[in-house]
Amino acid sequence: MRIIPDTTTLPSTPTTDILILPGGAPGAATFAADAGVQRLIRAYRGGGRATAFICAATTALAAAVAGADNKDGEAARRVRVTSHPAVKEQLVAAGWEYAPDAERVVVDGGVITSRGPGTALLFALTIVEVLCGAAKREEVAGPLICASEL
């Protein structure tokens, strides 16, 4: 299967309600090293929009904050996070408050982080709840035949 993006040009300002970065070590490393992605993460956070990072993508959030300056306000603030275990020490060493491993999804200050592929459904349901409320989360979770608190 080939997946072809609609565009390869990043917007300079938020264009959606949430920015979601997928995980995977190679992709996360690309996000963390890309100045355009860093600016976009800061623009979403600075504009009060939600952001979400799963697996190793939490390192892109850390890179965006590391590249921020004092005038970036909320976009420069560290929040409580989780990630794939492979990048946990990197985040802790950078001064991030890391949630206990039992917390598979963490929401703090409009930032949603999740541990990895095994937490993807819970991550998705949490995004629904942050954007649309608890009742919508329950509505979506019901037909999936899963506990909404997974």
- The main sheet orders its strands as 1-2-6-5
Instruction: Give the CATH architecture of the domain at 18-116.
Output: 3-Layer(aba) Sandwich
Give the N-terminus to C-terminus distance in angstroms.
Answer: 31 Å
The tally of helices reads 6
Shape: globular
Instruction: Spell out the helices and strands N to C.
Output: EHHEHEHEEEHH
Average per-residue pLDDT, rounded, comes to 92
Structure description:
With 150 residues, the chain is an alpha/beta fold. Helices cover 38% and strands 14% of the residues. It has helices at 25-33, 35-46, 58-66, 88-93, 120-132, 134-141; strands spanning 18-21, 50-54, 80-81, 97-98, 105-108, 111-114. Strands 1-2-6-5 form a four-stranded mixed sheet, with helices on both faces. Strands 3-4 form a two-stranded parallel sheet. Strand 5 (105-108) and strand 6 form a beta hairpin. It is globular. The model has no long low-confidence stretch (mean pLDDT 92).
Q: Quick summary of this structure?
A:
With about 150 residues, the chain is an alpha/beta fold. It contains six helices and six strands; from the N terminus they run βααβαβαβββαα.
